[in-house]
Specification:
By secondary structure, this protein is an all-alpha fold. It contains 6 helices and no strands.
């Protein structure tokens, strides 16, 4: 199940990054708010399962993540945070979509990296 958590978190981050990418192009498609809120709702099972498995060893699990993956995750989380706080935005009218997608990226990356550490430790 932990591998499934990693797969779910990765898929949600890629989907949110795709949504943000479409807001940056001038001729990109318009999405309804539902398509960005779905990964937001998927944060709950990722967070709950990861916290139940890691408990107080969450920081220790991060120590088992390869440094290259940890660096990439940190960079993606910072980019998501910039979209979440409004420092970066797409086309006018897509601010809410970028905010929710950025927040979903930050949460999925953080708990996805903990889940990767759980997989590597065999828990």
């Amino acid at each position: 199940m932990t591998r499934g958590t990693v797969a779910l978190a990765t898929a949600a981050v890629l989907w949110c990054a795709f949504l943000i990418g479409t807001t940056l192009t001038p001729g990109g498609p318009e999405f309804t708010p539902f398509v960005v809120h779905l990964p937001g709702f998927l944060v709950a099972p990722v967070v709950l399962f990861t916290l139940l498995r890691a408990r107080s060893n969450a920081v220790l699990c991060l120590a088992h993540v390869p440094k290259s993956l940890l660096g990439l995750g940190f960079a993606v989380a910072v980019a998501g945070w910039l979209f979440s706080c409004g420092a970066l935005t797409g086309r006018p009218g897509t601010e809410m979509l970028c905010t929710v997608a950025g927040l979903a990226i930050v949460l999925h990356v953080a708990f996805g990296l903990i889940a990767v550490g759980l997989v590597r430790t065999g828990r």
